[in-house]
Amino acid sequence: MMRIPCPWCGERDEPEFVCGGTTHINRPPLSASDAEWGAYLFVRENPRGVHLERWRHSFGCGQWFNLARNTVTHEITWVYSMTDPKP
Amino acid sequence: MTGFRLAAPWGAQIERSRPVRFNFNGRSHSGFVGDTVASALLANGVKRVARSFKLHRPRGIFSCGVEEPNALVDVGSGGRRLANVRATLLPIQEGMNVESVNCWPSVEFDLAAVNGLLAPLLPVGFYYKTFKWPDWRWFEPTVRRMAGLGRAPRQADPDLYDEVSASVDVLVVGAGVSGLAAAVAAARAGAKVTIVSQGSRIGANALWRTRSVNAAQLIEELDRLGVQALPNAAAFGLYDHNLVCVRETLDRAGAVEPGGPPIWRERLWKFRARDVVCATGAFERPMIFPNNDRPGVMLAGAAQQYAHAYGVACGTRAVIVANSDSAYEVAQTMKECNIEVVAVVDCRPPHMIRSPLARSDQFYSVQNATISAVKGGRQVSGCVVSSTQDGSRHRAFECDLILSAGGITPAVHLHSQAGGKLRWDDRGSMFVPDGPAPHVFSVGAAAGIFDGVYAVEHAHQTGLALARGTTPPLPKHNDSVSSLRSSHVRQARGKQFVDLQNDVTASDVELAARENYRSVEHLKRYTTTGMGTDQGKTSNINALVLLGEATERAPGEVGTTKFRPPFAPISLGVLAGYRRGELLRPRKSLAAHSWHESRGALFEDYGGWLRPAAYPLRGESVEQATYREACAVRKSVGVFDGSPLGKMEVFGPDAARFLDFMYVGTMSNLAIGRAKYGLLLNENGVVVDDGIVARLAEERFWINTSSAGAERTAAAFEEWKQCEFPSWKVLITPVTARWANVTVSGPRAWEWLNAIGFEAALAPKSSRHMSILDTQLGALRLRVLRASFSGELGYEINVPSDQCQELLEQLWRVGKQFGAVAYGVEALQMMRIEKGYIHIGTDTDGTTLPTDIGMSDFIARKASDFVGRRSLQRPAALDADRLQLVALMPVDRKTPIPVGGQIARTPPPGVSEGHITSSAISPELGVPIALAMLQGGSSRKGEYVQVHHFGISVCAEVVTAPFVDPEGRRVHG
After folding, report:
1. Could you give the C-alpha distances from B499 to B34, B327, B508, B546, B885, in angstroms and in order?
2. pLDDT of B591-645, one tens digit each?
């Protein structure tokens, strides 16, 4: 059970949150090919190391935010808002 | 020649003034308060306590702690029965009934011991190669009966389990001298420290174990500094971000018979520690020699602990077989309690033996030698010693106790769970931590430090550094323990056990290597070594060293299997804590629950809500009540509580275009006061929810979702808004609980509402179906939506939750004259099926697209993008052979069509063309009706199909829905 640092509420236990998976995914327009649309839906990088992902503080402030988490050590190195660019 | 009780001052933990009698396998034995079942049985001279798992060989008590592989017992009865408890940890209490496991009729005479004769047919992995032909199902019942050890309780656990979260600066796991020293140093330097110990008294073992250090002083100082010290508290897992879970036993002498009030049994501590100090000590490694599993073979350190802590001598004449200097200290202790040390048989060459005690001539000792044979079939009666160099026989000895001191295994579990690395120390033949894990520091034996004085100094430095926020020092390399890698005898007759609990022998490990299971993880699973309740605490190292020898690799190359929590078995109760019974999934009740109750409602759980299924009159079944209610609604009028329906307000300048993006239909062109049906998809194009969207104002919308989808749909809206459109000006407010919903439905609906004063603007001739109006009824504030799921003239009256009951009472007072009924969820389902209306999750599943349920019109008319639109253009979405929604009636107009029935040309086995999703007896038509998903269904109207369900077959006709009121006139009133 990790400790997730919510930018508004501070560090809280993981069950207060919902993980939204990889962040900075760009939604293709209607004109995308089947392959592009399929990649958007199903294909993700699975890095051994730093992973940029988004979380929602569902049982707190309800805000979505981004963070950088190491998939091996679970160390959270960067927390930033949905509108900030990639660190 | 058996075990016996020692006189005081031996036995620091027992209270000789408080005798206890308990029963083992039906026989009465005596002991003292403070004894465990194991110590009391040993003191009573009991030799055999169990039969082994696979071969049913007689077994005795092997150890004095959590690492016990043999002495598993069942204790108690009813809901308090405990199965597979380690006798070495179970305190005795008056009248307790303890039984051996895995033997019948008794541990002394076990019929299944015949397995021992079949042993050559039962090498490791035999079950992958046998019990398959002609059909594995023949063998399954017998295998199931023989598998497992104890017998589990059949009643629910009546007792209570607490749960506490705590936050500390430094958590010290283990109260040996190193743990005590670290805790004292950190506390003195101002850190908030907690120390946990699985023993019943903090530091009790340290007092006799580490004679070079003043443990008593450390214990006293710990107390003086006011450090939180938890005894009976075993840390079983170290999780992400230094979460350490500790199981505290509250009811030390736990009641094991049913009856009496519930007892607080255990407490789960969830510690968040800035830093963790692992002072978890080390286990003793057993020696491997033929028949090393005989009752009477024990770990050497255990014999020492039984003497010091429990005042028990485990035998009268002992041979100590050694690969470690600790053997000589044990020999010393044995002499002090009048156990004859017949010989110390050291498998190492003389230059490796450093202990000054080894030079003493108080006992016979021999080097470069080990045990090559054990005498005695049911218990040790003697042994034969041979040279390790040429196998030549040295001597035979008579003894009733063989003490095994094969080396040391530091307990690196928590360190490893934290991601810490291990290093093979070849001198000591052990894995030690290779530096700390992040914020997890090992001290004492757990770190590979065995010099008492240095251990305390290093632990002190560690505690101090952690309190100050500096880096603790790395421990110096071990130079005090010297052991050979392995000790097993080659070419000797008799089984040489590596894992006692799962009956894995050295030859089994070699067989696994020959069959090319070279990875230590494969070795574990193929041989099951290390997979028992003891998790290989006394077997893993021996097994991997052997694997290394068989595959020409050093132990460091072979490595260990992955360490996973829990460290030792824990009860399910302590994990469940308070989440059981009514608290497991707290149910949501309607605001007007008591009103429904007084109407005679039969409540059921619908998606977590307690709702009226129906309101059966006296003598009515649910089915009869449902039918009656639906008929009454179609004939006159009924009232339904639709409060669980999801509700949201969406407003802002961008609300309209936001809803256009979320929904399949166009919402931005809704006139104020008008509503339309809304269908929601996920990005895969799959239908996930439906409901109604109504426009309250230019920039304000009222959303209804399904009851089950209330929370997830609101969450989906929020996710799209915050993550995809963060700059859009739209706010989403879920208001499901704030508004209750009183739905009045039926031809006389307006008459009834008018009778209590609803304003004329809501009359059918003045308002339109699918319209919304904010209004007032006396003091009641209402938001009335003209909509219908029953297909009749319908008013969904949203009223603030706290006023719901009042509205219902006002209505009910005058309901009789209109023939009004209260109707429940079942009647509503019956009516919506008659109208062919889908229910998300019942008629749809995770593959259903809008075109499958006849909703393609919405999409054709809309130009812009919406969630999931692109997925509807994929080839699979356009396939004409997809499952599509159809309406069915039985050809004989009599036989009900079962939900879940498969539509196929022939009875199973075969290929299914579809399945029945909803079914009811139509109240209006009086015949069975059903909805189904059928391949290419939209072009199969008029066809006859076969529906198969558990042996019955119904012939059904594909008809058109709705079954009643096909032009939908009734909703207009």
Report:
1. 30, 22, 10, 12, 59
2. 999 999 999 999 999 989 999 999 999 999 999 999 999 999 999 999 999 999 9
Contact B719 A56 (CB under 8 A): yes
Candidates B934, B922, B958; CA nearest to B832 is B922
Residue B960 pLDDT level (bands cut at 50, 70, 90): very high
Q: What's the pLDDT tens digit per position in B839-888?
A: 999 999 999 999 999 988 777 788 899 999 999 999 999 999 999 999 99
**pLDDT, tens only, B555-581:** 999 999 999 999 999 999 999 999 998
What count of Cα atoms within 13 Å lies in the side-chain half-sphere of residue A76?
A: 18
Using the Cβ of B722 and the Cβ atoms of chain A, whether some distance falls under 8 Å is answered with yes
How far is CA B549 from each of CA B139, B486, B580, B671, rounded to the nearest angstrom?
37, 9, 50, 82
Query: What confidence category does residue B252 fall into, taking pLDDT thresholds of 50, 70 and 90?
Result: low
Interface contact B865, partner A, CB < 8 A: yes
Q: B447-452: long-range contacts (C-beta < 8 A, 24 or more apart)?
A: B447/B278, B447/B410, B447/B475, B448/B410, B448/B475, B448/B477, B448/B478, B449/B178, B449/B475, B449/B476, B449/B478, B450/B408, B450/B478, B450/B480, B450/B481, B451/B480, B452/B177, B452/B210, B452/B211, B452/B212, B452/B213
Which residue does chain A place closest to B863, by CA atoms?
Answer: A30
* Tokens standing for residue A79: 């927390």
Mean pLDDT in residue range B485-499: 85
Task: Find out whether the peptide bond into B438 is cis, omega within 30 degrees of 0.
Answer: no
Tokens 């052990």 belong to: B430
A82/B contact by beta carbon, under 8 A: yes
Residue whose structure tokens are 């009900």: B896
pTM listed for this prediction = 0.90
Contacts of B868 in chain A (CB under 8 A): none
Distance CA B812, CA B823 (A): 13
Question: Is the pLDDT at B174 greater than 60, yes or no?
Answer: yes
Contact call for B239 and A56, based on CB within 8 A:
no
Report how far residue B515's alpha carbon sits from residue B786's, in angstroms, rounded to the nearest whole number: 74
Distance CA B677, CA B694 (A): 9
Contacting residues of A for B727, CB less than 8 Å apart: 83
Whole-angstrom distance, CA of residue B625 vs CA of residue B628: 5
DSSP string, B846-862: TT--GGGGT-HHHHHT-
pLDDT at residue B253, as a whole number: 62
Strand B430-433 and strand B422-425: pairing? Answer: antiparallel
Quickly tell me which residue has 């799959």 as its tokens.
Answer: B686
Structure token digits, residue B139? 């063998």
Question: Which residue segments constitute the domains of chain A, with CATH numbers given?
Answer: 3-80 (3.30.2270.10)
Is B927 within 8 Å of B933 (Cβ atoms)? no
Quote the ipTM score: 0.98
Identity of the amino acid at B486: S
CB B274 within 8 Å of CB B285: no
Both tokens of residue B118?
């079949």
